[in-house]
Every structure is written in structure tokens, then in C-alpha cells.
Amino acid sequence: MNQLTGEHGKTLREIDRLLAEAPDDATRAELLRLRERLEAPELRDMARELEGSQPRPKGSLVLEFHDPLLPGFFTATGCVISAAVCLFAVLEGFEHPAVSVGGTPVNLWIVAAFAGACSALFTALSFQRSFSVRFDTEGMMATSNGARWRALRVGAMRWPSIRALHERPKDGVLEVRAADGGLLELPMRVVNYPILRQHLENMVMLYGERG
Asked: I need a surface site. Which of 8, 15, 21, 64 has the fewest CB within 10 A?
């Protein structure tokens, strides 16, 4: 009854196969730790929810990590303040369309229109990404937008090709190396980086280099 037949179950069966072929106790212990982590109740529940949802095209998006163009606090604060000013101006505008500020007459409807435009602008900016990493069932795709991460090596990598990870704290970059010598560079400042790192560590334990 607890058997999973989707990607989660396929991964567990692959680990069982590697366990049967493990050349030494150290490798076997490492694979057992990975299997125990993947069998955590929250991961099993998540897998069941995904399997019970509408079928997705092969290779469709499962997870996305990104580095926002502007800090979330800045865009959220700007959006809230602009929306509050817009609402205030609209409510006051019905009673007094024009008010005096420092001796200068101000049309509240113009203020409301400007504040509403600012709120929409901050909302749009909150969706802008300077770097994105997309994970699906087959691999990952990294893309860079703008100048901040232009120098990083981006592209695609399949999970069976992944071999090793290396963090560069000096410039805040995670290197992901492939069996064919390919290299992806991911910024460590992406949102939910610990989750991204843990997922990649799982793939390295499953497919990558072992001691």
C-alpha cells in the first residue's frame, strides 16, 4: 500500500539497485542514508500529491529557484505603500478632489493614478529575475538575465551526468560539474538555496563521485 509508482518510487528502486551492486560498506552506508532521507514522511506525502495531480508533459517544470532583480522587501514595501496612497487618494477624492499641500493645490485623482501606476510597477519588478534555475524530472536548466550574473556559465545538465559540487564562498557561486567536463555555475544567493543545495547533493550521492 505504501509503494510509490512515480518518479519517487523509480528513484528508490534505482537506489536499491545500486545497493545490490555497492562495492564496499562505505558506499552502501552512503546509499542507505540517501534512501532514508528520500523516505521521509513529508517527501512521500509530496510525491503522492504530485502523482495524484493532473499529468504533466515529460520534463515539465517541477521546481524553480531564482535570484530576484530587486530585494523582495523593497518591492513588497513599495507596492504596499503605493497601494495605500492610491486607496487614500481615491477615498479622499470623492469628498475633496483637490487639496492644498504647502500652499500648492494638488489633484487627488492624479495622485491616485500615479500611486496606482507605482503599485503596478513594483508588482512587475517583483517578478523580474536576474538568475533562474529550473529543475524537472530529467535535469536542470540555468539561465541568466541582465548584467549581475552575466559571467556565470549557464545551460542544461541531466541528472545522470552530475558528478560533483563545489562552493566558491569568495564570489558566492556553486559549481556543478558533469561527467563530460561540463560546468554550471549557480549563485548561492538564490531564494531557498539550502533546498537547491540539498537536492543537488542527493543527485551527487545517487549518480556522482563517491570517496
From this structure: 21
Between CA 65 and CA 154, with CA 172 as vertex, the angle to 5 degrees is 55
Strands of 139-144's sheet in order across: 61-68, 129-136, 139-144, 155-158
Calculate the CA 101 to chain-centre distance.
Answer: 45
Residue 21's H or E segment, with its range, is none
Question: CB-hemisphere CA count at 13 Å for 172?
Answer: 8
Burial class of residue 165, CB neighbours in 10 A (0-12, 13-18, 19+):
middle
CA angle 153, 155, 161 (to 5 degrees): 105
